[in-house]
Amino acid sequence: MQKLIIQGGVPLHGEISISGAKNAALPLLCAALLTGESLKINNVPALHDITTMLSLLKQMGTTVSASGAGEVTLSAATLTHLVAPYEMVKTMRAAILVLGPMLARAGEAEISLPGGCAIGLRPVDLHIKGLQAMGADIHIRHGYIHAVAKKLHGARIVFDIVTVTGTENLMMAATLAEGTTILENAAREPEIIDLANCLKAMGAKIQGAGTDIITIEGVPSLHGAEHTVMPDRIETGTFLVAATATGGEIHLKNTDAHLLDAVLDKLTEAGARIDSNGNWINLKMHTKPKSVNVRTAPYPAFPTDMQAQFMSLNCIADGTAIITETIFENRLMHVQELKRMNASIEVEGNAAIVTGIAHLDGANVMATDLRASASLVIAGLIAQGETVIDRIYHLDRGYENIEGKLSALGAQIRRIQ
Ligand code: UD1
Fold first, then answer.
1. SS (H, E, C) 280-337
2. Atom number in ligand 1 closest to CA 303
3. Is 315 considered catalytic here?
4. Quick one: CA torsion of 390, 395, 375, 42, rounded to 10 degrees?
5. CA-CA-CA-CA torsion for 369, 370, 376, 380, nearest 10 degrees?
6. Contact 267, 244 (CB under 8 A)
7. Confidence band (pLDDT; 50, 70, 90) for 329?
8. Are 11 and 246 in contact (CB under 8 A)?
9. Rounded Cα gap, residues 112 and 95, in angstroms
10. Is the bond preceding residue 300 a cis peptide, omega within 30 degrees?
């Protein structure tokens, strides 16, 4: 198994480019199932989750051609195998995103029911309830969701919890349904706007993406299009936290400050000086960070996918911070690992109380999920001595060439087999 070895204590300096967003690219690739014509997606990041999604789409009958430069062309002229098997869904829960498009286009779908995962139970009941409201007949048998619908129809669907992939799944399904679908209490994440823009380029009629009410008027068919994936706001935020924690100065290209207002506010509160314009962000940190309280909530509030990284920053900040996780019930797994590096953290329910100390100690730690892994990388960068991170396959699911980008910023980091 591969590991990352980090010699801490080097402030990050320099310039790197941010990749396309994983959480936007995954639903965008699934949108290809909605049309028999070609869909070209640019700026697709080279990540394990993307490879898994492309394998899944291929085995369903989609033709995929990918250039080395992040350009992927998909053509789902005929769907031959309407199944998402357990082996794929268990490694990537976002595979559930094929359910809505497959059902809307082909009238049936069979998808392994995702189980719980390291960060929580993560049911998909709202995806299923929404499709049932649109006329689908759905049964769970032998661990699989079996869905059939001759023709989906429009419906008014009120989510009782804000769900990102749930909103995306139903928005895609509704594009080909008969009549109008209204999604209320919809997720407002920028990735939903990105998906809606691509669907509109394919001929879909969608209004309100980015607000909590999305209205989709079904059309008989969609056509081919070309779309460029938005920048990854979580990768952007992770590098900004790493620069703040190490007292560095970095310039990020191909990103967008407007995508992460809540994160930039917290970094400014911690003492960072941030400038941005158009598609770049510059961050300078010349003081010891101040502790910042964080409470996760759906967009535009502070993202759960940045919680673990801020935990590491608070470990060496001046003062005490409370980090409250409200989205997932088990997303504080990194605390135990950070404590092995001497961090002072107490967990009470869904909150962690972090008291800043002078420095972390390098140690052997284990990555437990994607963003927890990122927090351990940041902890390794600020620790005294050597940190060895095991199980880094989690990182490769969501960060493109992380050690290459960190090395370009001066970090002492290498990967070993
Ligand atoms: C997406 C993101 C993930 C991010 C999360 C929250 C992708 C591919 N992944 O995950 O990186 O951490 O949003 O911002 O975009 N829930 C239900 N029933 C459902 C669906 C969700 O109870 O049918 C609950 C979940 O258990 C969780 C909450 O709703 O507690 C939000 O989850 P959701 O927004 O659906 O997360 P994902 O879309 O899986």
1. EEEEECCCCCECCCEEECCCCCECHHHHHHHHHHHHCCECEEEEECCCCCCCCCHHHH
2. 14
3. no
4. 170
5. 140
6. yes
7. confident
8. yes
9. 9
10. yes
Residue nearest to atom 13 of ligand 1 (CA): 164
* This prediction's pTM: 0.97
pLDDT at residue number 116: 64
- Please determine, for residue 68, whether its predicted confidence score (pLDDT) is greater than 90: no
CB-CB contact of 337 with 372 (8 Å): yes
Q: Which ligand 1 atom is the nearest neighbour of the CA of 97?
A: 8
Q: Which of 231, 226, 250 is nearest to 240 (CA)?
A: 250
Q: Evaluate whether 375 touches 125 at the Cβ level (below 8 Å).
A: no
Nearest to residue 247, comparing CAs of 282, 289, 309?
289
With a 6 Å cutoff on the Cβ, whether 300 touches ligand 1 is: no
Euclidean distance between CA atoms 320 and 182, whole angstroms: 44
Is the C-beta atom of 168 inside 6 A of ligand 1?
no
| Phi then psi dihedrals of residue 290, to 5 deg | -95, 150
Which of 232, 319, 326 has the alpha carbon at shortest distance from 279? 232
pLDDT at residue 268 tops 90: yes
Measured torsion, CA atoms of residues 30, 35, 38, 43, in degrees rounded to the nearest 10? -30
Could you identify the residue written with the tokens 């050690």?
403
Ligand 1 atom closest to Cα of residue 165: 38
Q: Which residue has the tokens 């759960």?
A: 304
Return the pLDDT at 186. Answer: 98
Q: Which of 164, 371, 394 to mutate to test the pocket of ligand 1 (most atoms within 8 A of CB)?
A: 164
Specify whether the CB–CB gap between 338 and 356 falls below 8 A. Answer: no
Question: For residue 122, how far is its CA from the centre of ligand 1 (angstroms)?
Answer: 7
How far is ligand 1, taken at its centre, from the CA of residue 164, in Å? 6
For residue 33, the 8-state DSSP code is G
Q: 383 alpha carbon to ligand 1 midpoint, in Å?
A: 32
